[in-house]
């Protein structure tokens, strides 16, 4: 068999093999399909100027424009505004079908904690079952869960002058554990997710024993803010570390992976604290808990690969860089993932959210980048065809299927 035949076979597998999207978010509902600026598809930037003027001049936007124009049959010279206008003219059902069918996504694991006050504008995770051949599963965001518990306790007890800070702390700790156990027992829940990277950084102090006095003081502060403004956000390091440690303990009991947002995000992140290297003490403290480093940990991909290579319980997701990075950037990240990380510990995701186009671009760009990197290795005689195909099947389906205990069989077209 000559090399061109090998590459044709590799291409066939890469672009058609079914995938498990191990980290994504819900679609906007039809009535709210235009609730957010569409430029959020190609950038995490915030602010009118950053979205409307800066983002549209990135390599990510240029490429997305070309690919979506091709999908919509608009011709090679269509611009970003033409793409936006055309998508708005399509029925939502038609748009979803056009984007999802060529993505070849068999199962989606949805973190349904995204949205905050706008969560009502999103579909429930089960709605997405119509888009795939295997049922959608949930990833429970632990900070959102903890905030919901605190909000409920405050609403119940603020008016009761007999409730002491100590009682509030004890009630919160009890309800947090009870809720995490309930989530872990739910067959639709296949893992937990932490956004502590956004809140206080990844330098999590290991251990779930928190000074009672400290926790009481912090919760009193949250109560006062909640009473004055009606808002609640866990953004204190001691409380956030406590929540993550409790989740890590319970996740190990049920063999549920814990996903961590690492690296690439919006301007709410302290970049230097988003490196997964800060998680090393937590990784060591919970050797029985599976830890999934999300978003390629970009720009700290090599650090993530190192952790994945030396710790049995660490796995690496190479998502979100599609479509946020340029084509060269995507290929370089894939190369860095493959530098050191065992190929039975890497997983793909779209980080798709709000728009069906995010799932489409997240799939076709990832497949293209993977093909181009593996093609180069085959041409250099660094990989055989069976080895390359094995990497593809593990990265897009088999690893997530095993790590999240999904029990699926690939449904090839």
TrEMBL record:
Pfam families xref list: Amidohydro_2
Gene3D superfamilies: Metal-dependent hydrolases
Residue span(s) of domain Amidohydrolase-related: 247-406
InterPro entries: Amidohydro-rel (IPR006680), Metal_Hydrolase (IPR032466)
Signal peptide: none
Molecular function per GO: hydrolase activity
Keywords: Hydrolase
Protein name from the UniProt record: Amidohydrolase-domain-containing protein
Organism: Dichomitus squalens
């Amino acid at each position: 068999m000559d090399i061109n035949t090998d590459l044709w076979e590799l291409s066939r597998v890469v672009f058609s093999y079914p995938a498990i999207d191990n980290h994504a978010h819900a679609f906007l509902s039809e009535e709210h399909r235009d609730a957010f600026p569409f430029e959020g598809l190609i950038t995490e930037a915030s602010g009118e100027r950053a979205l409307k003027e800066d983002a549209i001049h990135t390599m990510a936007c240029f490429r997305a424009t070309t690919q979506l124009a091709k999908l919509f049959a608009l011709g090679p010279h269509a611009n970003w505004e033409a793409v936006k206008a055309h998508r708005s003219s399509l029925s939502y059902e038609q748009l979803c079908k056009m984007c999802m069918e060529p993505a070849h996504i068999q199962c989606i694991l949805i973190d349904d904690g995204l949205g905050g006050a706008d969560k009502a504008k999103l579909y429930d995770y089960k709605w997405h079952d119509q888009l795939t051949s295997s049922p959608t599963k949930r990833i429970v965001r632990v900070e959102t869960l903890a905030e919901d518990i605190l909000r409920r306790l405050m609403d119940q007890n603020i008016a009761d002058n007999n409730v002491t800070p100590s009682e509030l702390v004890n009630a919160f700790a009890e309800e947090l554990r009870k809720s995490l156990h309930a989530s872990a027992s739910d067959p639709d829940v296949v893992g937990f997710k932490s956004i502590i990277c956004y809140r206080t950084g990844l330098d999590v102090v290991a251990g779930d024993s928190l000074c009672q006095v400290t926790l009481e003081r912090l919760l009193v502060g949250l109560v006062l803010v909640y009473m004055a403004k009606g808002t609640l956000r866990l953004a204190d390091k001691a409380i956030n570390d406590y929540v993550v440690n409790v989740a890590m303990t319970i996740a190990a009991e049920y063999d549920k992976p814990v996903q961590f947002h690492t690296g690439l995000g919006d301007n709410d992140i302290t970049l230097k604290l988003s490196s997964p290297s800060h998680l090393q003490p937590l990784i060591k403290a919970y050797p029985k808990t599976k830890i999934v480093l999300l978003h390629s940990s970009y720009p700290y991909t090599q650090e993530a690969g190192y952790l994945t290579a030396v710790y049995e319980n660490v796995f690496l997701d190479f998502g979100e860089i599609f479509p946020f990075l340029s084509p060269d950037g995507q290929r370089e990240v894939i190369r860095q993932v493959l530098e050191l990380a065992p190929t039975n510990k890497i997983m793909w995701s779209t980080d798709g959210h709000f728009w069906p186009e995010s799932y489409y671009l997240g799939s076709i760009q990832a497949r293209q980048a993977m093909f181009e990197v593996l093609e180069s290795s085959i041409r250099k005689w660094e990989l055989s065809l069976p080895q390359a195909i094995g990497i593809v099947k593990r990265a897009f389906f088999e690893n997530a299927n095993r790590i999240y205990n999904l029990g699926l069989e690939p449904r090839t077209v």
